[in-house]
Design goal:
This protein is flat. The mean pLDDT is 96. The protein folds into three domains: 45 residues, no CATH class; 190 residues, Rossmann fold, CATH 3.40.50.150; 117 residues, OB fold (Dihydrolipoamide Acetyltransferase, E2P), CATH 2.40.50.1070. It is 25% helix and 26% strand. By secondary structure, the protein is an alpha/beta fold. The chain contains nine helices and 22 strands.
């Protein structure tokens, strides 16, 4: 008979759940919730590596070991599928990205006072955790935190600042929003910061959109060995490690399809990987991403046709889809309800659905299954290590 106080799963927001249904903040698999409300740690309870846990909103599950983390990500996907009554085929091994692998992040800062605050926000709060260490950011991005803090000290008035960091082929890209550069001294300090820290690009939004102040050479990110111009702030998968896993699944499942539609395609992470064996139509709503993808495909002479189209307002229709042997889609968190309905009503025989939200994925998957698709394979993916964010790849055939 199971112990009613044993933590048997982690809920969607990170609380441990006992066998008798009680919630315990900070509980890991195998912990025991005692009558006085304290926890007796079990075999899967880990010592959090970061001094800022659990205040920092960047991590929710540093008290869980890798076994518990993988189980959490798996459960998020499986529970979402079961909630929609989906019959799942092969559940592939869960993939977790390693520590210090995050290649894009948005930090928040508050200037004024003796020392600017800089870091992630607290969980469920706008308060900023003044970071002294971070175990998720890639070292190249973490190394910018103290230099950024010193730079922000030049602004004595109070400003709320957002700083988006991303790793590109040329090094770190840094985009700052919420500060105006006033005078020669601040201008020189900004340029010195970019040069001294070997930035690929430094951009400021001073109220008129992002403008590059430092970019020694054009900034790019490579997909499938093809360099693609990287617009400041454009979407990238959170880790290169996670992207490789997502792309490998897509290529394994679609590599023999002559014609593929890549929907919500971004800069072409999947399109360029598939272009070795398939003709790909890459469809994206962000105009700068479409232009970057189109130019890269032309330079590399690859069969990738980039199209500008808002798939939420204007999804591909059933009469447009028969030219494709397969569809790949990687929509935002809201899912792709209307586009999936059009796919379901078409004759497309194969769909790869990459998702960053198991709930919206399961809703869309149900529509595909109702149209005669089988859910053949699913792989849970945890790119956002120690967070409650879960992703997945999935294959549907009919």
């Amino acid at each position: 008979m199971s112990d009613p106080g044993e933590i048997i799963r982690i809920a969607a927001k990170g609380d441990g759940v006992t066998a008798d249904g009680r919630f315990a903040a900070g509980g890991a698999l195998g912990d025991r919730l005692l009558p006085d409300g304290s926890l007796r740690h079990g075999p899967h309870h880990a010592d959090p590596p970061c001094r800022h846990f659990p205040q920092c909103g960047g991590c929710d599950l540093q008290h869980c070991d890798d076994t518990a983390l993988a189980q959490f990500v798996t459960d998020r996907v499986v529970n979402a599928a079961e909630g929609q009554g989906l019959a799942m085929g092969e559940l592939l091994p869960t993939h977790l990205s390693p520590p210090r692998s995050r290649r894009r992040a948005t930090l928040h800062a508050l200037t004024g006072g003796k020392r600017p605050l800089l870091g992630f926000r607290e969980g469920r709060s706008h308060r900023i955790v003044d970071m002294r260490e971070c175990h998720v950011l890639a070292p190249e991005l973490w190394s910018l935190v103290e230099p950024l803090r010193r730079l922000l000290g030049l602004w004595q008035a109070k400003h709320a600042v957002d700083i988006t960091l991303a790793l590109t082929d040329q090094g770190p890209d840094c985009a700052v929003k919420g500060l105006e550069i006033d005078g020669l001294a601040q201008t020189e300090a900004v340029l010195d910061f970019a040069r001294d820290n070997t930035l690929a690009r430094l951009s400021f939004d001073q109220g008129y959109g992002m403008e590059a102040m430092w970019e020694p050479e054009p900034v790019a990110v490579s997909f499938g060995g093809v360099p693609v111009a990287y617009p400041a702030g454009a979407f990238l998968q959170a880790t290169a490690d996670g992207e490789r896993r997502l792309v490998r699944d897509a290529v394994d499942w679609l590599g023999e399809c002559p014609a593929v539609a890549d929907l919500f395609a971004g800069l072409g992470a999947f399109a360029f990987a598939l272009a070795d064996s398939s003709s790909v139509v890459s469809v994206e709503a962000a105009r700068d991403a479409v232009l970057a993808c189109r130019q890269a495909a032309a330079r590399a002479r690859l069969p990738v046709e980039a199209q500008h189209r808002d798939l939420f307002r204007n999804p591909l229709r059933p009469d447009e889809l028969p030219r494709f042997d397969a569809v790949l889609l990687d929509p935002p968190r809201a899912g792709a309800k209307d586009q999936v309905a059009q796919i379901a009503d078409s004759g497309v025989p194969r769909v790869v659905y990459v998702s960053c939200n198991p709930s919206s994925w399961a809703r869309d998957a149900k529509r595909l299954v109702e149209a005669g698709f089988r859910l053949e394979k699913v792989r849970p993916v945890g790119q956002f290590r120690w967070s409650t964010h879960a992703e997945l790849t999935s294959l549907f055939v009919r």
